[in-house]
Amino acid sequence: xxxxxxxxxxxxxxxxxxxxxxxxxxxxxxxxxxxxxxxxxxxxxxxxxxxxxxxxxxxxxxxxxxxxxxxxxxxxxxxxxxxxxxxxxxxxxxxxxxxxxxxxxxxxxxxxxxxxxxxxxxxxxxxxxxxxxxxxxxxxxxxxxxxxxxxxxxxxxxxxxxxxxxxxxxxxxxxxxxxxxxxxxxxxxxxxxxxxxxxxxxxxxxxxxxxxxxxxxxxxxxxxxxxxxxxxxxxxxxxxxxxxxxxxxxxxxxxxxxxxxxxxxxxxxxxxxxxxxxxxx
Length: 281
Description:
This protein is mainly alpha-helical. The protein has eleven helices and five strands. It has one domain (24-279).
């Protein structure tokens, strides 16, 4: 039976809306470049829709999918964005994002399960995929899954905040002669809610493209590289379709450059289907 929202939850939703609108507007003054970035205007329903679509992409929209460990990887993938959490002694080329998410949620006043109380000092407690799968119905895992199910809206806010911060980071990393181009392409795609979904999903999916550890043969696969592969400049000229096409090319190149032992070709079909969804409302 559904329960009516408490006054606290109503206030949380109102606070979410206020923070979200402030965050997307803040994009306009964060970027350094030849011109100010225009504010991205999204309704609260559009913001929720973006979060739900990313949850669908990463977890098939299920609560069970909020706690995953993919075959062939050395980290847990948690939350609607499958945020990475490494176990003790494990690291890789990919940015660890789950501790940042937990800190973000904690700063919004949410109560953390015991497992996450010292997230900055505590690595993922499961040391392998086998351990993780064996623990699927333990109290710790159940508490973690419930926590993630209860904070879906705040996780969506975290994804938008990451998008908010992506452009300034990319402009710093881009060669000076390419900065105006990157900013222009970002703005073209961000003109519509569907474009904002494409940007938010891709930056969560494959990162900003600014870390040199996230490259094969010195070629990245993040948002910076996708924007760099776009060539049209006029607004309103199917920018989301062009973004989708560029993302496909970047992902194919990543698989071609990947170490053979990673067998990344097994994921390519799903990746391509995901970026194709960007041009479908």
